[in-house]
Amino acid sequence: MSWVGRSAAEIAEAVRRGEVTAPSIVEDHLRVIAERDGRIGAFRRVRTERALAEARALQEREDLATLPLAGVPVAIKDVVAVRGESMRNGSAATSSVAAAEDHPVVARLRAAGAVVVGITNVPELSLAGFCDSVYAVTRNPWDPRRTPGGSSGGSAAAVAAGMVPLAHGTDGLGSLRVPAACCGIVAIKPGQKVVPPPEHDWYGMAENGPLATTVTDLALALAVMAGDMSLALPTTSHRTSGSPGSPGSSGDDGALWSDGGRGAPIPPRPSGLRIGVARLPVPPGFAIDPELQRAVVEAGHTLAAAGHTVVEHETRLPSWLGSATIAAWFACALRETRGLDARRLERRTRALARAGRLLARIGKDGSRGRERWRARGADHWFGKADVLITPTLAASPPPAERWGRRGLLDNTRVNLTYAPATGAWNMAGWPAMSVPYGWHSTGMPIGVQLVAPPGGEARLLGLAQQLEAAHPWLRHAPS
């Protein structure tokens, strides 16, 4: 029996109960990676021997029956340190020296029982909403002619193709939510100080977060990354003879993996919230595909049927925020290229950094707009809603090509045309996530974005679970 395609929660429970071993789980997923990744290009590095050795060591841990991610294969985006592996961030100009220690998020995943099976591809320095680099052109499992999005495109593609049940990513201006929407999976960008940030923190805009095929798995992974198991959601489970709250047992409300069975409270289902439906959450001059707008309206109807008050939010984002967000993107490119050999950088990267340098000379790096939006602008624009629901993307995913070989105008135009609706919430530092909701006439999945004020991660996850229950999605692309 293969465990490929099963959820992380199912896998972990089976390993905890001794129904299957961690090495067997990892072997299954490594086999599928070998079979499928040749056409997808999700992984820069597959840790075959090391992952199997780590799975065998995990199986011998005395605390195996208390681990929330026992034996779960995970993929890590090539932008945080993984002990014993180089971190290239999609570039030939970065160091090939192996990291001596795990990033705290990777350490937390491993401590929870996850096994790192590979390092996923990103665009150079994670600067674009595509996923091409000197290492690969990563492709969308739903349509290999299209991009899986970026910059966490390799992680999203690996999850959507069923090669891993969970993956890590980072989000600087939408880099978790954009590929999640492109690939028909769920992802959440937490607010500030919920999860230890990546080293490349993009002036405080970037956050670490998970990608998964179910909201339960997503919440479990976020809880582990945050070190706060109260963020985990209830899961369905077979009833066992164990006592309530013990590993592998379930009470009347279903099993919740909390903190090794010590009984963290089950978060209440959200009810009676005021939800604003924003069909055009972009500055004037930007357009959003009518099919994507319609999906947001329909998702609002679903939440209204769940007992929430749904209202229209018709105000577009201010023009000055759009300009500031673009300037912040260019400023991040300039910062990321410092100390690197420009001769080894791609044309796109050099062009983005050059634009950042020119804007910096006239004091236009996006910092003033970011401070203004964080201080009062976001709260004022958000209004009296508890949560906003918006399109995640503005158009279907563009072609999977070597965009890194093109210049500033091509890359800026396509990035802003298809993915202009996410960056505002990095500028604000607020939590936001993408949830699959329906299909586009092109045959691609549609994602809707949920946004909440700071501290709203559990609220977003609860609403996403309600959408999932009312409107379930296909968890994986056909293999």
UniProtKB/TrEMBL annotation:
Residues 235-270 are annotated as: Disordered. Residues 25-461 form the Amidase domain. Residues 241-254 have a biased composition (Low complexity). PANTHER family: GLUTAMYL-TRNA(GLN) AMIDOTRANSFERASE SUBUNIT A, MITOCHONDRIAL (PTHR11895:SF7), TRANSAMIDASE (PTHR11895). Belongs to the amidase family. This is Amidase.
